[in-house]
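During the reporting period the student researcher (J.K.) took over the structure-prediction task from the postdoctoral fellow and processed the backlog of single-chain submissions. One of the processed entries is reproduced below for the supervisory committee.
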Amino acid sequence: ETGKGTLGDEVNKLAALLQRIASEHHALQQAVCAAKHPHVLDAVRDVQEQTGLLFAAGFITCTPRRWLEHYPRYLKAARVRLEKAAHGAAREAAQREQIAQLRQRYENRLQQAQRKQETSTDLLEFRWLLEELRVSLFAQELKALVPVSVQRLEKKLESC
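J.K. obtained the following structure tokens:
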């Protein structure tokens, strides 16, 4: 009842956000298709896995609005990453491995919490901090929302 007056505006804002997300997703898919250099193929696979997680079934309703609003930046960062990958393959691979290790530890901790039927806002936030780390490592010019580094996320995961 109290939100009736703003419902139309909120729907329009969400529609505009989804349009930006779709546009960035399309641009990323074009970059994926154009990525032919052999050194870029591992980065392409990782980006495809990342977008699979971002666009999991029900993502629009399951993703907190705070983080959904950053999808266009995450997608743009992935595109920038692919553009840079051929020129710094060794560095890109090392950064990709750091993220993979953090993500694996996060998934293990998430499974433990689910088995114990625990919920942790820090653990839920960690998932989105991984996306911010990707921005920080692969597309610094897009700026992470919060200060992140591999070391900071390792400490945060230990405290979750």
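The committee noted the following: The mean pLDDT is 93.
J.K. will present the remaining backlog at the next meeting.
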